[in-house]
Design goal:
With about 375 residues, this protein is an alpha/beta fold. The chain is built from 15 helices and eleven strands. Strand 8 and strand 9 form a beta hairpin.
C-alpha cells in the first residue's frame, strides 16, 4: 500500500514544547556571549578534548542571564508557539480532538490493485458470486484496470448508484466488494440516519454534535479508499434547523461525490479539510427518480434486474457450502424456494439469506437434552 497526505494541517514535533525551546534559546545565547569573553578569562579545554569547544558546564560560572534575558526568551518562545498553533489549522479544536487527528499526521494508506490479472480476478469473483449484478461488476472491473493504466497510487472507483428491485442484495454486493479488496466497509441505513448528520457529521453548536460515520471510518482504519455504503439513499429524511435551514443527505453527499471538491472536503464537526476523493461510494436505491438531478449527474444509475430462480438456487448452494451446512439442509432450502406456490413471486435473496441463517442456527446450535 502507498501512503498519501490526508489532512490539511501542520503537525509540529511534540518534543519541542515551551521548556525545550527555552532551553535551546538559552544555550544559543550562552554560546553567542561566550565568543565575546576574553581568552584569559576562560580556562582552556581539557587536553583530551580536541574540538576546542568549551562545554556549557564550564560557561555556567562565567555567563549569567539577567531577568531581562529570561523575559525576552520567554516572550520569543510564546510568539513561536502561538504562530505554530495558528499555522497548524487545529487551534480551534479541543485537546482531545487534536489528539485524535494527530494519528493522521503521517498520511493514510491506499488500497491498490497489483496488476491487471488482479483486476480480472476481482471482477471474476464478484460475477461468480452475483451474476445478476453484472452491470455493476463491469464498472468496478474497468475502474480497477483504469487505475493501473493511469498510474494512480491506489484503486479509484467512481461513485456507484445501484438501482434495482428490493431483495437482490445490492448492499451485499458492496460488502462483498470490500471483502475482496480487504477494505474497511461501513454500511449506513439512510432511513435510520438523521439526514446528513449520520454520514458527514454535524456542526459544533448543534445539540449532540459529533463527527460523521465517514471521518470516523478514516480515523479508525487510516485507509483512504474504504467502501462507504448508503442503503436506500432515496428514503433519507431532511433535518430542518430552528432557523429554517434544511440539511438533506443527498445535498451533503454532492461535494463528496465530485473528485475535485472531495479532495478538499471540509468536515462540519472538525472544521478541517480532508482528502476524501478516494472513497469508494456505493449508493443503493429502489427508485432513483426520487433523487435530485445533481446527485444523478454524479452517480448515473446502474440498472439491475431480478434474479432468476436458477441464480437464486446457485446462490443458496454456494452460501450453504461457505457456512458448512449439510447437503440435506441446503437441498431442503432449495426445494422450498423452488416450490410451485412461489413461482408468482420474484426470487428474493433476503428470504434465502434468512433461511440459511436459520438452518445454520439449527445445525450448529447446542444439542437439547
Amino acid at each position: 500500500m502507498s501512503t498519501i497526505p490526508f489532512i490539511e494541517a501542520r503537525f509540529f514535533n511534540p518534543a519541542e514544547g515551551r521548556i525545550e525551546l527555552e532551553t535551546r534559546f538559552m544555550r544559543r545565547l550562552r554560546k553567542l556571549r561566550c565568543r565575546r569573553i576574553p581568552p584569559d578569562r576562560v580556562a582552556p579545554p581539557d587536553e583530551a578534548d580536541t574540538s576546542g569547544v568549551i562545554p556549557d558546564a564550564d560557561l555556567m560560572g562565567i555567563i549569567r542571564f539577567s531577568d531581562d534575558d529570561e523575559a525576552r526568551i520567554k516572550r520569543r518562545v510564546k510568539r513561536i508557539l502561538e504562530k505554530r498553533k495558528a499555522a497548524s489549522g487545529l487551534e480551534h479544536l479541543k485537546s482531545d480532538d487534536r489528539a485524535r487527528l494527530e494519528t493522521l499526521k503521517d498520511g493514510v494508506r491506499l488500497i491498490s490493485i497489483r496488476n491487471e490479472h488482479h483486476a480480472d480476478e476481482l471482477a471474476a469473483a464478484l460475477h461468480g458470486d452475483m451474476p445478476w449484478m453484472a452491470p455493476a461488476t463491469e464498472v468496478v472491473w474497468h475502474a480497477a484496470r483504469r487505475s493501473l493504466r493511469e498510474g494512480w497510487p491506489g484503486l479509484r472507483i467512481p461513485p456507484l448508484l445501484l438501482q434495482g428491485p428490493p431483495g437482490i442484495s445490492k448492499s451485499f454486493f458492496a460488502r462483498r466488494l470490500g471483502e475482496l479488496l480487504s477494505a474497511p466497509t461501513t454500511v449506513i441505513e439512510a432511513t435510520g440516519e438523521n439526514a446528513s448528520f449520520g454520514v458527514v457529521g454535524s456542526q459544533r453548536g448543534w445539540g449532540g454534535s459529533c463527527p460523521g460515520r465517514l471521518i470516523e471510518t478514516m480515523l479508525q482504519n487510516r485507509i483512504a479508499n474504504p467502501v462507504m455504503v448508503v442503503d436506500e439513499v432515496e428514503k433519507a429524511g431532511t433535518a430542518v434547523s430552528t432557523k429554517g435551514h434544511a440539511f438533506g443527505l443527498a445535498e451533503a453527499l454532492l461535494p463528496l461525490l465530485e473528485p475535485l471538491t472531495a479532495s478538499r472536503w471540509s468536515c462540519p464537526y472538525y472544521q478541517v479539510k480532508f482528502d476524501m476523493s478516494w472513497v469508494i461510494w456505493v449508493l443503493t436505491s429502489n427508485d432513483y427518480r426520487q433523487l435530485p438531478e445533481p446527485l444523478l449527474s454524479r452517480c448515473p444509475p446502474i440498472r439491475l434486474r431480478h434474479l432468476t430462480p436458477a441464480e437464486l438456487l446457485a446462490f443458496v448452494r454456494r452460501e450453504g457450502k461457505k457456512r458448512s451446512l449439510s447437503e440435506t439442509a441446503v437441498e431442503a432450502i432449495c426445494e422450498v424456494l423452488s416450490h410451485p406456490s412461489l413461482r408468482q413471486h420474484q426470487p428474493s435473496l433476503r428470504v434465502a439469506t434468512r433461511m440459511l441463517g436459520r438452518a445454520a442456527d439449527l445445525e450448529q446450535g447446542p444439542m437439547l437434552h
